Amino acid sequence: MRQGGFTLSDVNFTLPEGAYGVMTGKTGCGKTTLLEILCGLRRPHSGAVRLFGQDVTRHEPGSRGIGYVPQDQALFPHLSVRENLAFALRIRRWSRADIATRVGELAERLGIQGLLDREPGRLSGGEAQRVALGRALAPRPRVLCLDEPLSALDEDTHEDLLALLRGLHRTETPTVLHITHRRSEADRLATHRLRLANGALTLEDVSHVD
Hints:
Elements (H helix, E strand, L loop, with lengths): L1 E2 L2 E2 L12 E5 L6 H9 L10 E2 L2 E2 L10 E4 L11 H11 L4 H15 L14 H13 L5 E5 L7 H18 L2 E5 L3 H7 L2 E6 L2 E6 L5
Parallel strand pairs: 3-8, 3-9, 6-7, 7-8
Antiparallel strand pairs: 1-2, 4-5, 9-10
Helix pairs in contact: 2-3, 2-4, 3-4
């Protein structure tokens, strides 16, 4: 991937199904760009993106089975929390009953039952991040990509969301790729650590039993 004077090269890695991968690297090293390539928001100039053995390089973002939470969460400001959670399900033409069941399930799991009728502008940072996670997880993606999901949170909220992410990984069982600039997040969450530097990426298996 080339953009101006910036180049991503020799990026080749495989995350096992069900892994929690945490990617670190200096600001501007290309972490977000790499995540956007995986999600289909950018096209690589060369190489391929494979998910579960399938080449999805030319697939549209919505057909890749990836849930994505960008840095700014990108919640729909004109929709309620309930409608944000249901958005991807309506596009996929789930039935009303199945949508209601899934939204209720996610709201309980995320601890946002009392927020369903609020609009995003009335949410705290931690609340908005929970909603963004729920919206990404709603259609049960096989892969969840998180771009600095905890970076703007205070210490207490950060701890709460760390615990939530660990719990969601167990209950929703997606393969996760989580970008952060905090090594402490990798220590707490990662089964695999990825380090991006000078346009190249290294992968380390750090699987552990809690």
